[in-house]
Amino acid sequence: MEKANPITWRNRLHNTIYESNTMAGKAFDVALLALIMSSIVVVMLDSIDEYHDRYGRVFYIMEWAFTGLFTLEYLLRLISIQRPWRYVFSFFGLIDLLAIIPSYLSIFLVGAQSLLVLRALRLLRVFRIFKLTHFLTEMEFLKISIATSLKKITIFMLVVLSLVIILGSVMYLVENGQNGFTSIPASIYWAIVTITTVGYGDITPVTTVGKFVASLMMFIGYGIIAVPTGIITTEMAFAARRRKHGHETCPGCGREGHDNDAVFCKFCGTLL
Amino acid sequence: MEKANPITWRNRLHNTIYESNTMAGKAFDVALLALIMSSIVVVMLDSIDEYHDRYGRVFYIMEWAFTGLFTLEYLLRLISIQRPWRYVFSFFGLIDLLAIIPSYLSIFLVGAQSLLVLRALRLLRVFRIFKLTHFLTEMEFLKISIATSLKKITIFMLVVLSLVIILGSVMYLVENGQNGFTSIPASIYWAIVTITTVGYGDITPVTTVGKFVASLMMFIGYGIIAVPTGIITTEMAFAARRRKHGHETCPGCGREGHDNDAVFCKFCGTLL
Amino acid sequence: MEKANPITWRNRLHNTIYESNTMAGKAFDVALLALIMSSIVVVMLDSIDEYHDRYGRVFYIMEWAFTGLFTLEYLLRLISIQRPWRYVFSFFGLIDLLAIIPSYLSIFLVGAQSLLVLRALRLLRVFRIFKLTHFLTEMEFLKISIATSLKKITIFMLVVLSLVIILGSVMYLVENGQNGFTSIPASIYWAIVTITTVGYGDITPVTTVGKFVASLMMFIGYGIIAVPTGIITTEMAFAARRRKHGHETCPGCGREGHDNDAVFCKFCGTLL
Amino acid sequence: MEKANPITWRNRLHNTIYESNTMAGKAFDVALLALIMSSIVVVMLDSIDEYHDRYGRVFYIMEWAFTGLFTLEYLLRLISIQRPWRYVFSFFGLIDLLAIIPSYLSIFLVGAQSLLVLRALRLLRVFRIFKLTHFLTEMEFLKISIATSLKKITIFMLVVLSLVIILGSVMYLVENGQNGFTSIPASIYWAIVTITTVGYGDITPVTTVGKFVASLMMFIGYGIIAVPTGIITTEMAFAARRRKHGHETCPGCGREGHDNDAVFCKFCGTLL
């Protein structure tokens, strides 16, 4: 925040780039977001053979323009912050670097340009920018709910992983290495495709026993898909209730559970 | 509502067409619904080559009959309402127009008739008509729950969108533009098919690394499908509780929203 | 129940067949269930060409044996009940009849035997028999939760149906009647396969616009699959709470919300 | 636990192998887990033809090394426990045996080595080891929620099973044994693939009636997938609430289970 510092040009630059409570800061954020999105669209279009053949030249120039602008932004971020190294090795610092390196690498290394798709990672900055808007509370809410349920989800995922390895191995035995179940890893891949109900159909059981095991697996998958939902819903309900009801205690009767907007205790009528 | 106006023919027409508290109004609604459904069934059947060859002539006549009736309805709606332009540019006004235009266009423009399928949009009028029945409360309930969770769902969808762009781009790199992953947009399409657990199987990973990334993605999809469910369930539970409790009014301050177990008003301390 | 009647042979037969509080009644239920399952297994095995060729003769005899036993059971049910016609036209009465008719029909009509698969409907009797066990409360609970949410689910299904008709029609236009989208009904079938996340892959979009519409549809499907879950979960939570907490009012303070096992009011300590 | 016994070597061995409150016990558990995982990875890699051809010899030696270590572990477990037979016939005892038998069998029986994949079952020991960490409470929580909802889930699964048999049989009739619906079991397999929304696409309806029945089935599947989620979520919410509240003991009667807002014991009326 650095609100006590004298307003120097470096300070003003910092506020524009890293904060968004000023007019310039907001404009910078919106412009940056538009730039990131445009650069991703260009990389996307360039990956389509038809467009590459026709507009490849234009895309090439645009990509260098984006690289130039992102490099400029990167340098400005470096000089306007007090501890540059900390930014460089931060999550967003690394992503920002990953977005400009491939272009420069492509001068020396043929094919390095294909790494430009990593620019898509910069999209995550959207959530940084969102922070400033009224979505903040909702994001906080989602983050808390997911964070508190992470332990349970981890255990659940471990159970699913064991299940998938065991049932995948069983299918490898049952289908005898035939019909696409050529190896245990391939069979595990099939098991994941099945238990998550994605069901590509690139590998499907052919033998009767295999179909039976597969049916069993689908039923298991059908039943356990309910578990992560149950976990997250329960945590969300608690988070939502916590947000609504205060943890204040009534001075008259000592009871809790009052609403956030309560002025008097709902049990004994004492002023809170 | 216009209840103060003298009962003129225009007024009666308005009541029949726009309201449904009269016998005629209800009959009009039911007849309209039947007409819309019949017209959609005819368009559907006409799209099947076999039936088109055999009954094409009959369908052609029926479609003009429906167009005639819908045009008549449109005109009646126009003359019976006080501000016709407002209806014309309203959501349902535009859909009503879209349902009759293609037929007239087809006189001048070959192929415009295929736009007749837009008539399916008129199906949405079902919900207009439902409003009148005892489904109203339930619809209100669903609408409120979904509206309050819209912000959270939006953030969630943005996360999924970023994920899908990033993982799609990664797969384009991993599968090296082969095996259907011919461009980044195509790979993103695959990523969406995978993360939503639809899993057509028209594009599937072939390389080992690709299968590994795909497996990871399915697990992510499996875990996060729980999030929108959690959001909507929590909001519904709150909406349901709100509907059940808290409609008591405080005799002291006239405010609502008290808990079931409250003895004193939480706002002014009066005994409830 | 007919508990006041003198115990005649007809009465005892009725108790054995329709009730299950006697030893004989329980034995009858278990035997019937075993018989139904065996008959279904025989029909299943007979449908496999390989087995039909080898054991067709045996299956034929067994099917007639089952038909004989089921006919006997049907007649016994008829003579042991007071109002036979009521049973004949009841849900289970019709199913019981459907299970024996195809065999007799097959004497006169070639191919009627294939209707034997309708015998599978008798499986529903399992739930009749379950009624007697300790699963009753749980079944009641599930039935109430689903019944109370039926109205909301109906509206939801109507929304999905409209969506599927509209988006199916749009896809028919977009894919121009090619690539499997040969007619509007076929496109609607594809839309249902997509929005329910089944995703067979027998029809898939090929054009870029088609893939875009499909992606949109999958996202919609991903979001709205949460709605029926939310509805049922909320209803279940209410049903569960209702079952746990009594609706008794305390004579001392007039408050409700006591647990089922409560002896004293938890608010004022008065004996309930 | 055996805490009263004098510390002998056998006792110390028991503590190291079966418990994990000592340093040695923890080290043993981690080493065992690493060993199990390595052995599974080796079996996996060996199942890939390419690796088998190149490193088959190395894998062979490693598998015998793992077998030797697991045999040693098995013997140590046997001699360090007081009732060896009880361990041998316990769930984990049988799995431990199943993990070493195939190797020895392969000396006499060609092909028995393929049963090595059963080693994957040892992965379940992960959860045994997890017990010791802070995941215990969360695991307990998940286990309780799932256990209490098991009865409801069982009924639900029975309904789904009946539905799948009935609708599978109907499809066999409708598609007339063609298009992959070659037998009733095959059609039931298809029905399971459809209702669980897996949707491989290896068998798909071709006739119009078949597509209609399939669409109906997908809608049913879409609606009822909400039921197990609802069941588990409700149970989880109750389990979570129980864990949060109600651990206060009444000074009068010593019973627990009071609500958060209770002032008097609901069992004996004593002031809490």
Q: What would the keywords be for this entry?
A:
Four Helix Bundle (Hemerythrin (Met), subunit A), Helix Hairpins, 272 residues, homotetramer, 2 domains
Shape of chain A: flat
CATH class of the largest domain in chain A: Mainly Alpha
Tally of helical runs of chain A: 12
Structural class of chain A: mainly alpha
Instruction: Give the assembly state of these chains.
Output: homotetramer
Write the CATH architecture name of the largest domain in chain A: Up-down Bundle
CATH topology of the largest domain in chain A: Four Helix Bundle (Hemerythrin (Met), subunit A)
The sequence of SSEs of chain A as H and E is: HHHHHHHHHHHH
Low-confidence stretches of chain A: none
In helices, the fraction of residues of chain A equals 55-70%
**CATH homologous superfamily designation of the largest domain in chain A:** Voltage-gated potassium channels. Chain C
Pair with the biggest interface: A-B, 63 and 60 residues
For the largest beta-sheet of chain A, the strand count, sense and barrel status come to:
none
Query: Residue-averaged pLDDT of chain A, rounded?
Result: 80
